[in-house]
Amino acid sequence: MKAVVNTSSKTTTIRSALFIGVMTICSLTICVSMLASTIQDIKQQRTSLVNELKSYASIIAFNARASFAEAEKTIEQTGAGFADERENIYNDFAHTEESRLRSFEAVPMFHNIHIYRLQQSTGKLVLYSIYNARGVGPYPAQLEKVAAFTEPYLSDNYIELSQEIRLDGNIAGYVFIRASQQELQRYIQNRILIDLFIIVCALIVAYLLTRKLEQRFTAPINQLLQLVQRVAKDKDYHLRAPQNSIEEFTVFGKALNTMLDKIERQIIKQQQTETEIRELYQGMEQKVNERTEALKSSNQELLNTLATLHQYQNQIVETEKMASLGQMVAGVAHEVNTPIGLGVTASTLLQDKLTGIERAFNDKKLTSSQLGRFLNESKENLGIIYRNLERAASLISSFKQVAVDQSNDSQRSFNMSQLINEVLLSLRPNLKKTRHQLLVECPPDLIIESKPGPINQILINLIMNSLIHAFDNIEQGEIDISVSISGTRCQLCYSDNGSGVPENIKKRIFDPFVTTKRGEGGSGLGLHLVYNLVTQALNGKISFESTLGFGVKVLIDFPVINNSHKK
């Protein structure tokens, strides 16, 4: 399995990322909702205005129909048969209708009202009556277009519509109305101003709440980060994480405190053991000087001393088990900072884009394509923030599980593939400094019941042994880990293509204090610890094969309970 690490030189704080993300979401939500509400309200107001004009047009058409009927009745009574006589009668009634139309001066939105009459003799429309509002000039007669205005026509400033005048079921003329939209425009302007005021107030409230929210989340993160940095720098393991009201931080703090407790106790035990060993060696030297002539007694005393050393050796082995856990504390801070840094970088980019959009909006140069591109980029950046915060949570969870498993020898059911991945994640600070490849072959759904703690420690020691010894002079090595199940036995095969083991130490590779790095920091307890964990903790068997220059192969066989079929 190849470990790929992404790094970024540009970083910012999680406080800024959280603030920008929340404010962006709130701003977009408020603006979109207010825009949708305003558009819907404007449509309703315009529809209401059109319906009101239609009602007025119906009233005018009703009065005009009555006027037409009275004119026809007068023509029948007088027996006027000539066209001029008929037109004179209609003109008399037209003056009456104009006086009626002047009553619409009380409605400021009416600018022009025309009543057209259909001449029976010619079949053409003629202007029957007209009304022009004060201060508004006459509007040209719409003899040719009036029939088309039965469907209202809306321009920027006016609404034009017409209503048929029917007499005895036949079209006798039309009413044409031309009304101003100034009242509607003023309403729209006032509505926009109110919406802008509401948006500003909402953003101020969102800003204050976001500041409170970011303080609530970033304060415990900074406390935990400072604690880990102090522990890594000063090796001060008596420090403890404070209590927190947020559950995730409380759980992480408890796990960190538990780990620090165990490390502190192990360090105290190690110091006591070293003191006892020094005292023991001093006592041995004194006894040897005193009993030089009593060889038999000295030999017996030496045997007793060797037995005591074996006991202390077991204590040193236990100390070695916990030492690797302490080393991971320094690496976890950097590993958690990496995804947080990526998320902060994405949030900073989103802030820059938002500034550009805001500038374009204020300059009234914002285009739909620019807004669409900004929305797409915002989704991508928010996705990056979410994925990296989720990755940071995953790193913390894996680190916690590795820490618990290393200090716990109890038996439980677990996913073998997930355990291996957690071990590799905990060793990421060591692996990412190299170009070595690590390949894992394990069924992803393999669930066994065994002791994950010893298996965890075995894998860590084998991998670290390869990194320190096998690949000492190799830039790009390869480690293979394969797991298989046969009945109630689990076979774990570990191999590398490193420098191998010399023949003179291969047969005693599992003995304590056997190392090729004597005087260079090697304790010689790594593979001895692996042997004890396999044979004692797991009740299994271990075999070792190696040829100098061709790497090593370690085969571990131990009993398990296969729970894969119980899922």
From TrEMBL:
This enzyme catalyses: ATP + protein L-histidine = ADP + protein N-phospho-L-histidine
Write down the InterPro entries for this protein, in alphabetical order: HAMP_dom (IPR003660), HATPase_dom (IPR003594), His_kinase_dom (IPR005467), HisK_dim/P_dom (IPR003661)
Transmembrane regions? 16-36, 192-210
Domain Histidine kinase, chain residue ranges per copy: 331-562
Task: Give the enzyme's EC designation.
Answer: 2.7.13.3
Coiled coil where?
none
Q: Which residues form the HAMP domain?
A: 215-268
According to its UniProt record, this protein's enzyme class is transferase
- Recorded GO terms, molecular function? kinase activity
Q: Provide this UniProt record's keywords sorted from A to Z.
A: Kinase, Membrane, Transferase, Transmembrane, Transmembrane helix
**Protein name stated in the entry:** histidine kinase
Q: Which organism does this record belong to? A: Arsukibacterium indicum
